[in-house]
Specification:
The protein is globular. The chain has 2 helices and 11 strands, in the order βββββββββααββ. It is 8% helix and 47% strand.
């Protein structure tokens, strides 16, 4: 059983920053893609940023390029890893529930990230992010 624990969401003013954390544990994550997805009220779930396990470049949605940075820490325990999403220059359009998800890396990181629902197997509970004055 894979466990995902998210933290770091909250309320921030436009132009501010937040850092989301996703701790995944439970089984071997050496070949897993981990990503952040978001869903605004009335909207579809979209891929924000994903990072693979093989050292290749992460994927970023066009709307967050240059503002968000994803990083992945790997502990000595291959069954545990933490992924961070540093979000800078936030604007009201970034308001959404942010979900961390894990999937097998059987294709490109971008392909998995832009089409998450059939590909990402495990999902966190969601962290609300609100950007408002």
């Amino acid at each position: 059983q894979l466990h995902i624990v998210e933290s770091g969401g909250g309320l921030v003013q436009p132009g501010g920053s937040l850092r989301l954390s996703c701790e995944a544990s439970g089984f071997n994550l050496d070949d897993a893609v981990i990503g952040w997805f978001r869903q605004a009220p009335g909207g579809e779930r979209e891929g924000v940023s994903c990072i693979g396990s093989k050292g290749g470049p992460p994927y970023y949605a066009d709307s967050v390029k240059g503002r968000f940075t994803i990083s992945r820490d790997k502990s000595r325990d291959s069954a545990k890893t933490t992924v961070y999403l540093q979000m800078n220059s936030l604007n009201p359009e970034d308001t959404a529930v942010y979900y961390c998800a894990v999937g097998a890396e059987f294709t490109t990181v971008q392909a998995l990230c832009v089409n998450p629902m059939p590909n990402m197997d495990y999902w966190g509970q969601g962290s609300p992010v609100t950007v408002s004055t």
